[in-house]
Every structure is written in C-alpha cells, then in structure tokens.
Amino acid sequence: MSKELKNLDKDYVLNTYSKNYINFKKGINATLFDEEGKDYIDFTSGIGVVSVGHGNKQVADAIYKQVSNITHISNIYAIEPQAKLAEQISKLSGFNVATFFANSGAEANEGAIKIARKYGEKNFEKKRFKVITLEHSFHGRTITTVKATGQDKFHAPFFAPYPDGFSYDNTIDDIYNSIDDETVAVMIELVQGEGGVQPFDKKDIQELAKFLKENKILLIVDEVQTGIYRTGEFLASNLYGIEPDIITLAKGLAGGVPIGAVVTKHKNILEPGDHGSTFGGNYLSTTAGLEVVKILEDYKVSGKLDEAIIYFEQKLNDIYEKYPNLFLQSVGLGLMRGLRVKDEQTLASIVSKAFENGVLVLKAGKNTLRLLPVLTISKEEIDEGFKRLEDALKQIS
Ligand SMILES: *Cc1c(COP(=O)(O)O)cnc(C)c1O
C-alpha cells in the first residue's frame, strides 16, 4: 500500500468513493500487479469495462497509431473510425440502426431519453414524455439518469429538484398497468447489474416488447453493462430475441477508453442541432472501440468466448454448491455473474478476504457477490482466481 498515493488521493481527489489504497502498476489480461509485484486476479474488469483485458497490445497499438496522427476533430467533420464502429454495431447486432456516440453510460441514457421525448412530441396528438423504469435499476449519475434509476438511495434530497416524468415499477408485469396516455417509453436492463445481477425472464421480455410495439411506446434497453458480448452474445437483446427501439452501450465497448453509444432504428428523429457532444465519437475512443469489437467478434466466432463462459460457470457453481452456508442463489448470464450471499456483512467480509487473497471481486445491491471478469480471461486465470476465492471463503466459513 502506497502511503504517498493515499495522501495525494486524500488531499486532492474529491471523496466520492470509499476505496482501497492499492497502487496497481501493471496489468496483463485478467491479472494485475501492485507496486510490490504482488499479483491479483481481476474478476471485475473495472466494473465490466476492460472487456479485452488489461494492457491489450492490439488495442494499444491501434490507439497509438491513430493518436500519433489525429486524436480529435469535431463532429462537424465525418470521422472514419466513428462511421466504421457505427457500421459494426449495426452489423453485429443484426439491426438496421444508427448510432450517436457519447462518453459514458449515463450520457448515452440521456441521449436515449432525449430521443424518446422528441418521439413523444412528434408522434402523438398530446405530447407523451413519461419514462417508466424498474426498481433496483441503475441508469447513471447525472441528474436525469439518477432520477431514472429506480433506487431511492440515489435520490438524495440535497440534489433536488429532479426532472419530472419518471416512475418505477417493481416487476415487468406491473408495467402494463402503469402505462398511461403520457407514457412514451419503458427503459430497462435485461440483466440488472448494480441491482444484483438479476436477469429477467425471456418470455416476459418478449411479451413486453411486443405489447410496447403494438402501442407505439418505445422500448429502451440499457445495455451499458450487458452489451458487447458480456452475456455471450453481442447484445443481451440478441440473446433475448428482441429488437428494442433504442439501445445504450458504454462500459465494455472501448476496453477502458471512455465511450457511450445511443443506438436506434429510429434514424430520423434527431436532426442537426438537437443533440451533440464535444468528445463523443472522436478518433481515440472509436478506434479503440473498433479494435475491441474486432477482437471480441473473433473470440466469439472461434468459440473461445463460449468456452470461457462454460468454464467460468462451472467453477462458480462448484463453489456455490460447496458453500451452502454462505450462498443462497447463483444468478446471472454469460460472464455477468453473481452469488447471493446470506447477509450483507458476510458479503463485505468475502470481498475484503478475497482482496487479501489476491482476487478482485465486486458487490452488487445489498447481498450479491458480483463477478464481471475480463471476457478474454484465460483458463489458468479462472483456475487461479477461484482457488484464491475459495481460500477466502475457507477463512470465513
Ligand atoms: C454503469 C452503468 C451506467 C452508467 O454508466 P457511466 O459510464 O458510469 O455513466 C448506466 N447503466 C447501467 C446499466 C450501468 O451498468
């Protein structure tokens, strides 16, 4: 632990995270090294961001080659890697869609909400503007997306007033009754990430999608966490067999370079002047995104991604079955996984013991141990990570 870093951080960085004072110096795929050279297996990938691993040479080379020529010009000029990444998103999703690039998940969701509001103005006699989301959802930290997030703990009174037009339902079924003549969109995650790695039922989602389509209400799927092969397909929407009106992406799309994307089949709602971003879609982020998507498409096509998913799942289920005194349920899809832990305190001690034993894991919601490994994680890294996790569990139970 670096004393110097700790002091710097405490003195100069705003105190918005309770954090571990560790100074990571090097990363290779799913393995990180601190300043003493101690290694950690990373089952977090920076909360689902570093999709193709730390220090990915292919991505680094592509970025270097691009930024040593041009890093940035504004969106008043066409940007080749941006156009190509948008093309790839359409191709790989199988949807006839166009994309707006932003810089984060929250910003992508803001864009989605703006599209929905304009759609609500244009397509109905009386303007529709309300967006229904779900309890335990997470959609971001801006004033609007935090309001869209269905968790009271994020709606602190000191940030009020919040924008109008958001309400939360407990279940997919409840949505049908909440829709009124001002509802323009339903925004959901297919697997709630921050809310506890909770996947929804495929049939329920398909029925909802069909109903919304018949009623001209937009379905916005927040794939900021589930997108870009996290659940085993390019999009979780592909896995669920639905074609949403708007999809948002961010975390895994550029392997750690900030990016967000609003993807929609409604290509003509926004016009010049309606929306914009200084940095969104620049050469740096979209070059990284293009390379990430290329690597992961190969990974999927070659069968390696599915192999990793099956192997990881098997190891996870082994510890789940071995420690019934700690775990209540195994949840999640693909490489977005969770174990429900019997109580909050046990979860906190698993996370800290895991850290001591050299494996990084996450929490989600109140009682879910969350694992979001690098998608290119090797078999050896999976073995070593679970061995260390089990060492931690032994010390607890
Ligand atoms: C992380 C996340 C966000 C917010 O993304 P930021 O890049 O932090 O703004 C939004 N929605 C979901 C589902 C997320 O997991």
Automatic annotation (TrEMBL):
Protein's UniProt keywords contain Nucleus: no
Gene Ontology terms for molecular function: identical protein binding; pyridoxal phosphate binding; transaminase activity
Organism per entry: Malaciobacter halophilus
One Pfam family, short name: Aminotran_3
UniProt KW keywords: Amino-acid biosynthesis, Aminotransferase, Pyridoxal phosphate, Transferase
InterPro entries: AcOrn/SuccOrn_fam, Aminotrans_3, Aminotrans_3_PPA_site, Class-III_PLP-dep_AT, PyrdxlP-dep_Trfase, PyrdxlP-dep_Trfase_major, PyrdxlP-dep_Trfase_small
Protein name: Aspartate aminotransferase family protein
GO biological process terms held by the UniProt record: L-arginine biosynthetic process
CDD domains with a match to the protein in the record: OAT_like
Pathway: Amino-acid biosynthesis
Entry cofactors: pyridoxal 5'-phosphate
Family: Belongs to the class-III pyridoxal-phosphate-dependent aminotransferase family.
